[in-house]
Write a structure and sequence with these properties.
Oligomer: single chain
Strand content: 35-45%
CATH class of the largest domain: Mainly Beta
Largest sheet: 8 strands, antiparallel
Number of helices: 2
Helix content: under 10%
Radius of gyration: 29 Å
Order of helices and strands: HEEEEEEEEEEEEEEEEEEEEHEEEE
Number of strands: 24
Shape: elongated
Distance between the termini: 89 Å
Length: 344
């Protein structure tokens, strides 16, 4: 019996052919580059079919695949560390899969900086506040200024920005508030005198960051106040003599007046100054809408207290980065109230 061997045509596909038929993954989208101290964090969108991402960078712009390559693995973010602060680093991202390499993503850049603003404090409007004890004692006869970034969640009722007043019906001392109209409202009272008020023309909007700076000339009169919103001097003035001492032994507090008028929303970069800042110095703090390093301010020698309100802080302590070393305590708050909402 004769055996015959029948050879049939190959119906499948070789491993080589199958690989050749798989297209490369799509081009990733570079979402953000966030600076930190001597580092940038690069974040991009995930691309299906990717087994590895490559990050290319240079310090001149127009990044290509001939620039320095960082192989970062199958992840969608990367911390590029060991950088030089103040130098701009440009990036593009490439996805890699079984089918080969994608094109390069859009380009973005970051400038590492020792000053990084990532956090603010979030207050619930019920009973949360920061307590500084019996400090920030400013008399009616001395120059001083107050600065803060403020983002109210709503304007449903009067809300406290900062107050240091007696805990009784007289409320002797200083109180700074947001009215239901959104306008800024200051109330000042000393023993044996009527309350003196100041109300502004401009003010605050819900869920919007506003930089507030109040300066005082030490003139023992309400016309010694100036109020700035986002670096611009408000048009509303006030008059009324201030007499007797404004100093109380009651605590200085952010976001509440003793136990009333609780603030709901975010506050950050709060500073107290032992000088009447001028318009140029206020603009220096405002910095075109981005919080800046107060330690580099031209009047930092006259800065009393500077609170980052989350950055560099360890719950529940709010560290004073100014010259007086008056730390605050987050009261009735949680570590999660150190919040990632900041002016951008």
């Amino acid at each position: 019996m004769t055996r015959r061997t029948i050879i049939l045509p190959f119906q499948g596909t070789s491993e080589f052919d199958r690989s050749a038929s798989i297209p490369p993954p799509g081009v990733p989208v570079l979402d953000s580059v966030t600076p930190a101290d001597q580092a940038n964090t690069i974040v991009w969108d995930d691309v299906s079919g990717t087994t590895n991402y490559n990050v290319y960078f240079n310090t001149t712009g127009s990044v290509t695949d001939t620039d320095t390559k960082l192989v970062v693995g199958d992840v969608t973010s990367f911390v590029h560390s060991g950088l030089t602060n103040g130098v701009t680093y440009f990036y593009r991202v490439q996805s890699e899969g079984f089918g080969g390499l994608s094109g390069l993503s859009n380009e973005d850049s970051g400038v590492p900086d020792s000053f990084v603003n990532q956090f603010s404090l979030l207050f619930d409007g019920v009973n949360e506040f920061v307590d500084f004890g019996d400090n920030h004692n400013y008399e009616r006869t001395v120059q001083w200024s107050f600065s803060a970034w403020v983002r109210p969640n709503n304007l449903s009722s009067r809300k406290t920005i900062w107050a240091k007043v007696s805990n009784d019906a007289n409320v002797f001392g200083w109180g700074f508030y947001i009215e239901t109209s959104g306008k800024f409202f200051a109330q000042v009272r000393s023993s044996g005198t009527l309350r003196s008020h100041l109300s502004t023309a401009a003010g605050f909007s819900p869920l919007t960051w506003t930089h507030l700076c109040i300066t005082y000339s030490g003139a023992s009169n309400m016309n010694g106040f100036k109020v700035y919103f986002n670096g611009a001097l408000d048009s509303t003035g006030a008059s009324g003599s201030l007499a007797n001492t404004l100093i109380t032994t009651d605590p200085s507090r952010i976001a509440v007046r003793n136990t009333a008028f609780n603030f709901v929303g975010n506050t950050e970069e709060v500073s107290f100054w032992g000088v009447e800042l001028d318009s140029t110095e206020v603009s220096e703090i405002y910095n075109s809408g981005l919080p800046t390093d107060i330690s580099q301010h031209s009047q930092f020698a006259n800065n009393d207290s500077w609170y980052r309100m989350g950055d560099g802080d360890t719950f529940p302590t709010i560290t004073d980065n100014g010259n007086d070393s008056v730390d605050g305590t987050m009261t009735n708050m949680e570590s999660g109230d150190i919040d990632g909402t900041v002016p951008t």
